[in-house]
Structures are given as C-alpha cells and as structure tokens.
Design brief:
Layout lengths: L3 H5 L7 H11 L17 E3 L2 E3 L5 E4 L2 H4 L8 H13 L10 H18 L3 E7 L1 H16 L4 E4 L8 H5 L18 E3 L19 H8 L9 E2 L4 E2 L3 E4 L15 H11 L3 E5 L23 E4 L10 E7 H4 L17 H16 L2 H22 L4 E7 L2 E6 L9 H11 L4 E3 L2 E6 L2 E2 L5 E4 L7 H18 L7
Parallel strand pairs: 3-16, 5-6, 5-9, 9-10, 10-11
Antiparallel strand pairs: 1-2, 2-3, 4-12, 7-8, 11-12, 13-14, 14-18, 15-16, 17-18
Bound molecules: pyridoxal-5'-phosphate (PLP).
Length: about 475
C-alpha cells in the first residue's frame, strides 16, 4: 500500500543529504539550534560515545547537557525501562502506581535527612514546566508575583520560565506575559560584575543586594508591615548555561541570611546540576543552605524520559494550601519516567556517587588546569566542582573572551578526525557562557582516569589545530 508518507521516504536508510533536504523543508528551525552547516547527524550512542553513520566515535563531554550523566545505554536503567514497558507502560495520573509513590517518598526522605525538613514532590515533564509549577506554588503560598533571579541564569523557555531568565533574546519575539524577574548580578568572580577582586571584595555583591531593603524610599521593603515586594529568589547554585560559573563558598550562606530576614523563599533550580553533577546530590548542598523549593529534571531519568519535578517544604505544598488538581498534566507522573527515576535514586545512593564524582572531577580539573598552565594565551580560566567543569577560551591577554576561537574548536571536534591514541575520534563539546566562550564540561560519571586523559589530549589537539600561533607562553 502506498501512502503520501511512504512515497516520500525510501524503504532503506536515506542518504544524509536527503535527510538534510527534508529537514530544511519540514522541520521547524525554532525547536533547535544549528551551530554547524551542515548539521551533525548521529546514529547511535553507547557509554560516553556518540557514533555517526560511518561508525566514527565522538567522545561526549557534555552528555546531553548533563541529562545522560550515567551513560548512554546504561544497562541497569535501560532494563528498568524495558521491564516497565511490559508491566505498566501507560496510566492516567489520576490513578496511582507504586513507582510514583516510592520515588516521591525517596526524594522526600532524602531531603528530610539533608535539610531536616518535611516536604512533598510534585511531578511534571520537562524542566521548564517544573519551573512553571514552582512559580505557581510561590504565587499560591505568598499571594504575590514578583521574584528575583540572577543575571546570566537560565530557567527554560516557557513564557514564565523565560520571564525569570535574564536573556532578552529569549523574550523578544513574544512580548511579556508573566512578570519579568528583577535580575541580580551573579558572583562570577573571574569577570566580577562590580570590577572587584575576590581576595578583598568582602562579598561586595551581597552588600549591594542587601541595600535593596535598607531604606524606606528606595527599597523593595515596607518596614511598617515588614513585607517584601519580592517573595522568592530563583537560583542555579552553579550557573549552567551561563558557563558553569561556580560562586565562592561564602556567597549563598550570606545571601540566604538576607532572604530569611526578608521572608523571601529560595527556589533552587537543580535541573542541570542535580543528581551529583556538582559532587553532591543537590549542588546547593555544597553551600550548606536549605532551599524552600527544589526543581529538578534532566538526569532524574538519565534522559530516558522527560520526567521532571519539584520538592517543596510542607507548608508550601500541603494539600490544605495546594489542593488536588492545583496544576497537572497528562504525562506528569508517567510510569515509565517514575520507574527509571526511582532506579536512578536507588543506584546513586548504593554506589556512592558523591565520592566518585568528587574524585573523578578533581582529577579532570587538575588536567585542565595543567592545560591552562601550558596554553595561557588560549585558556583564561578553568574551574570545576564535582564533574561540572569549565574552560574559558580567551584572547592572548588571557581575559578578553574569544568566541570565534571557541566556535572553531567546537566545529573542529565535530569533524571526527582527531587521534585518540591511534583511534579516529571526534569530540563533543558544548559552548556556554555570557560571551559564548566557555566549554561547559559535563562528562559521563563512568569515565575512567585513562579516558579523562584521552579527553584532555583531544582538547589539546583542538588547541594545536585551531590556535597554532598561540601555543607558546
Ligand atoms: C538550570 C536549568 N533550568 C531549566 C532548564 C530548562 O529545562 P528544559 O530544557 O527541560 O525545559 C534548563 C535546561 O537546560 C536548565 O539548565
């Protein structure tokens, strides 16, 4: 039987050029980004490698923006998905299933043990949607709309999430639907927004934030009723899309003190850094502060299902204040996602991923610091926490962002012709940062030290190929 669909699509594998032509005609350009021309097409994935159609391996140092932290084709997690497909693959969320309840209980108990707080978990699909739910929760419990967020932060692309993401580019086409956040400078010490040096700044940025509440006439604070105009602060503990920017250890405790004094909720966006990316279950644990709401997604299912969710303190989410049907979606606590999520949480607790990610991350960081020492006219800054690492590509002065070289290195890695100790290989890097000059590394947790060495050798080959005139000190 011939249909319109199979007339246009050949029976066998289509040529790449044919696929690109179809993509040009039928795919929206708006739901992705094309950094390469022609774009890269991958065929399969295994461990921390992506393979193109010629079977060339590409070592992936970004693992789907940290969604696939536990490796492509992770046998344990894949098996759970396969078993769940045979057992209970679909179920409307109005009915209960065991995996949803157990996953919520596991996260609830974990947070009780970490923060001493009771709370509940609310599921959805996609990080941005979980951010939307958190905005509703904030509005519902405080009766107010206005929130703070960081400059350089990223919370997603739904209308509400874009309104608390500092980039105007993400809002320009669509106008304003929700209240735009008040954006506060993030402590990006390599490029301090106040031009200070960390050694003697005494957290000037925190003092500046505190000033917002100091006087009656130029303030977000009404001292007569002890009430803040802004009711929540949205924070990524480590800015992800912003370039894996790690704040100084003292920053969040100092900020939280002000938030507590002004009754402002701390909403911790762990969508990219949660599940041990930054060496702790939640990245915010590195800073010893207790969030009121935690939003998560991505690695919760190792990227096998778009399940996301939030955890909130009991006072904010108890059924008396946030009743049945307060906000939900068809796919929210879908059984495939919750089954994998539950296995992820079990697996990371059994296997001590805290020790593993901190040890391997420290090893990786030492290697890229050595690269920075050898190539100071290419790399301006390196840093890392757990297995979230950054390499900032700069001009010869080691400071001016070199966006162009960053892109060239990225594109060179995508050619697939690097030499991984005698084996032809590509390298998958992701570019982030305020100036699009930062390689944000989110390597697979399973990489061995030898594989980390190979990854660093591949990065060095990119430097040698793309900046041959800047190799000397
Ligand atoms: C910190 C953070 N928040 C929110 C989001 C949005 O999540 P999603 O792309 O799943 O909607 C992202 C995605 O990259 C993110 O990194």
């Amino acid at each position: 039987m011939s249909t319109v669909i199979d007339e246009s699509i050949s029976a066998g594998i289509m040529k790449e050029s044919e696929l690109f032509a179809l993509e040009q005609k039928y795919c929206s350009a708006g739901d992705t980004v094309h950094y390469l021309d022609p774009p890269k097409l991958f065929d399969r994935a295994e461990g921390h490698y992506l393979y193109d159609r010629k079977n060339t391996p590409y070592l992936d140092l970004q693992m789907w923006y940290s969604a696939a932290s536990f490796g492509y084709g992770n046998q344990r997690l894949n098996q759970v998905l396969k078993d769940q497909i045979d057992k209970l693959p679909q179920l409307a969320c109005q009915y209960l299933h065991e995996e949803k309840i157990e996953l919520a209980a596991a996260i609830g108990r974990l947070n009780k043990s970490k923060f001493g707080l009771d709370g509940r978990v609310h599921f959805n699909v996609g990080g941005s949607q979980a951010i939307e739910d958190s905005l509703k929760l904030v509005r519902n419990s405080t009766g107010k709309n206005l929130v703070f967020a960081f400059m350089g932060g990223y919370h997603g692309r739904t209308l509400g999430a874009s309104a608390i993401t500092s980039s105007y580019r993400y809002r320009r086409r669509y106008g304003h639907f929700s209240d735009r956040a008040h954006f506060v400078p993030f402590p990006y010490c390599f490029r301090c927004p106040y031009g200070k040096k960390r050694e003697d700044c005494n957290l000037y940025c925190v003092d500046q934030f505190a000033k917002n509440f100091e006087t009656e006439y130029n303030s977000f604070w009404d001292a007569k009723v002890s009430e803040s105009e802004f009711v929540a602060f949205y924070a990524e503990p480590i800015q992800a899309t912003g370039g894996y920017v790690i704040p100084p250890a003292e920053y969040f405790p100092a900020l939280k003190k002000i938030l507590d004094e002004r009754n402002i909720l701390l909403v911790d966006d762990e969508i990219q850094m949660g599940f041990y990316r930054a060496g702790k279950f939640w990245a915010m644990e590195n800073f010893n502060v207790e969030p009121d709401i935690i939003v998560f997604g991505k690695a919760l299912t190792n990227g096998l299902n778009p399940l996301s969710g939030l955890w909130a303190r009991e006072e904010l989410i108890a059924p008396e204040v946030f009743p049945p049907g307060a906000t939900h979606s068809t796919f929210s606590s879908n059984p495939l996602g919750t089954a994998i999520g539950l296995e992820v949480v079990r697996m990371i607790e059994e296997d001590n991923y805290g020790e593993l990610t901190r040890r391997k991350g420290a090893y990786f960081l030492a290697q890229i610091r050595e690269l920075q020492r050898r190539y100071p006219r290419v790399i301006g800054d390196t840093n890392g926490i757990g297995m979230a690492l950054r390499i900032e590509i700069c001009r010869e002065d080691g400071y001016e962002p070199d966006r162009e070289l960053t892109h060239r290195m990225f594109a060179e890695g995508m050619k697939g012709d690097l030499d991984a100790r005698g084996r032809r290989s590509g390298l998958v890097l992701d570019i982030g940062g305020y100036y699009k000059n930062v390689f944000t590394l989110a390597p697979c947790f399973d990489m061995t030290e030898e594989e980390i060495d190979i990854a660093v050798e591949l990065i060095e080959q990119l430097i040698v190929r793309c900046a041959p005139d800047r190799l000397s000190h």
